[in-house]
Write a structure and sequence with these properties.
The complex is a heterodimer of chains A (189) and B (95).
Chain A: H1 6-27, H2 30-46, H3 57-76, H4 79-82, H5 112-117, H6 119-130, H7 134-144, H8 150-157, H9 161-182
Helix pairs in contact in A: 1-2, 1-3, 2-3, 6-9, 7-8, 7-9
Chain B: H1 3-6, H2 10-19, H3 27-39, H4 41-60, H5 72-91
Helix pairs in contact in B: 2-3, 2-4, 3-4
């Protein structure tokens, strides 16, 4: 690369894998994730003057990447996924026609500290999150892992607050059930 | 008031358990949810699961993302694509 592009090489070397892991966990598509990294680096290169140096380069690159991913979801994910309440409610699958649980949830014994340390649990969790529909997964991960506030998530994804609440409820329901099956034991629920 | 219309079903209660993490419930919603939970062990356990999930994820932060790495080939491809794009841009005469 030419001399004035040296920072690009440094970004790929120092942050490429981190950015890729982030993008892949949201998009579940290697080629798409790679394209997002490329677009992010390009945007960062062209916007170098906008980088105030107050945050670390990684934080700055991640914030650009987050916008790219949200744009992709907003533009390419089927609108029904983002505006889900018009569809049949998928959370009905867990309940009988009387609104009672088909399979009773059982309290989980493991505590959050221990779960976080457990590499196997993290793998199961990632796989379960991977099975969520794209829009649900993105809203959910922005909220729970990145700790973004709902107003900024709604703005990024172009959805209403009530739609966001529906997405969160559906993601929690599906994720809890997946973890019950694949981690906390039993083929129930 | 008919009992069935005022009492939340488990399905409705599960929605409120999630909403309570996102917004302040209205006083009536809150009362109906607490009433349901007082009487329903299944939903108390669901709420417990959701709270374990919630604090695990919050604690996990960016460790909750994948550890996958770009292969050398993928890095090379990104480099060469960026080079091409930037070269094309600099070759284009400015208006």
């Amino acid at each position: 690369m030419a001399r004035d592009d040296e920072h690009l090489e440094a970004w790929i070397r120092d942050h490429g894998d981190y950015l890729f892991g982030y993008a892949l966990s949201r998009l579940r598509d290697r080629e798409l994730a790679r394209d997002m990294i490329q677009d992010t680096l390009l945007a960062a290169h062209r916007g170098m003057k906008g980088f105030d140096g107050k945050s670390s380069p990684r934080t700055w690159l991640v914030s650009i990447l987050k916008h790219k991913i949200a744009d992709h979801i907003r533009l390419h994910v089927r609108t029904e996924q983002l505006h889900e309440d018009v569809q049949t409610d998928p959370t009905s699958d867990w309940f009988g026609s009387d609104g009672k649980w088909d399979h009773a949830p059982k309290a989980w014994k493991d505590n959050p500290e221990a779960l976080c340390e457990n590499v196997d649990f993290r793998k199961v969790l990632q796989s379960c999150m991977g099975h969520l529909p794209d829009a649900q997964r993105e809203a959910f991960m922005l909220r729970e892992l990145d700790g973004d506030d709902s107003a900024s998530i709604c703005k990024k994804l172009g959805i209403s607050t009530s739609n966001f609440h529906v997405l969160m409820h559906r993601a929690r329901m599906a994720l809890r059930s997946c973890l019950q099956t694949h981690w906390f034991g039993g083929s129930r629920s | 008031m008919a009992k069935s219309s005022w009492m939340y079903s488990c399905h409705e209660a599960s929605r409120m358990i999630s909403d309570a993490l996102e917004r302040n419930l209205a006083p009536t919603e809150w009362m109906r949810l607490r009433m349901h939970l007082a009487l329903c062990k299944m939903c108390r356990d669901y709420e417990q699961n959701i709270h374990v999930l919630e604090s695990t994820l919050n604690r996990l932060g960016d460790q909750g993302t994948q550890n996958d790495q770009l292969s050398d080939d993928e890095k090379t491809l990104i480099r060469s694509n960026l080079n091409t794009i930037l070269k094309d841009a600099s070759d284009t005469p400015k208006p």
